Amino acid sequence: MNIIKAEDYNQMSRMAANYIAAQVTLKPNCVLGLATGSSPIGTYQELIRRHQAGDLDFSKVTSINLDEYKGLSPENAQSYRYFMNTNFFDHINIDKTCTYVPNGLEENAEKACADYDAIIENCGGTDLQLLGLGNNGHIGFNEPDEVFAKGTHCVDLAKSTIDANARFFDSMDEVPKQAYTMGIQSIMQAKKILVIVSGKGKANIVKEAFTGPVTPQVPASILQMHPDVTLIADKDALELL
Ligand code: F6R
Questions:
Q1: Residue 120, domain member (yes or no)
Q2: How many CB atoms lie within 10 A of CB 156?
Q3: pLDDT for 52-67, tens place per residue?
Q4: Total structural domains in the chain?
Q5: Domain region containing 170
Q6: Is residue 67 annotated as a catalytic residue, yes or no?
Q7: Residue 239 domain-assigned?
């Protein structure tokens, strides 16, 4: 594993953007696996800046996102599709029909997951998968479990996640209780994986995930088995390594 230490969140974001920009430049028709959350926002902003400066062309890129809340429409400001559009896709020249996020409006979970696995397979898997790291070691919505889930699946959100999300909705009924997430096998089949982590709050889980035992109780620990993983983290997140 390649570990790159950044001073802070901003430098981490610029370094991650360097890595992704190199991938897009060297293989303009690459497939990027993308994440939502606070970790990649700075990276997306930096990629947008480079695109607007004329240095990065996304016209041939395909993207496949990790996850989506079940029941939320693309127009819902809390959906991950909305996040990707507003934080990234709306500001670059990617063909939106080649950007994939699980279909949150598909009520039949089996169908939603099978459809998404078919999309991943048709795209030939991802060239580069960008990941954030959850406080409990989750990647995508693959939460600590007895086994590593393989393909796309529907997860019941933890009560703490549902409670935390409640503030964004008018009523508890509207808060999503489930999500669709890409499985560990699809993540592991990416040719390259880039993990970005920032902040002291993640120092413990960074140590556990990247130097502890490989166990489904810490889903990110499986990344130790991948042949091409780069971790770009700020010094706060790396302080226990
Ligand atoms: C997002 C995702 C999650 C986040 C993780 C870290 O698509 O799949 O696994 O990457 O929860 O979130 P942040 O970056 O907000 O700390």
A1: yes
A2: 13
A3: 999 999 999 999 999 9
A4: 1
A5: 2-234
A6: yes
A7: no
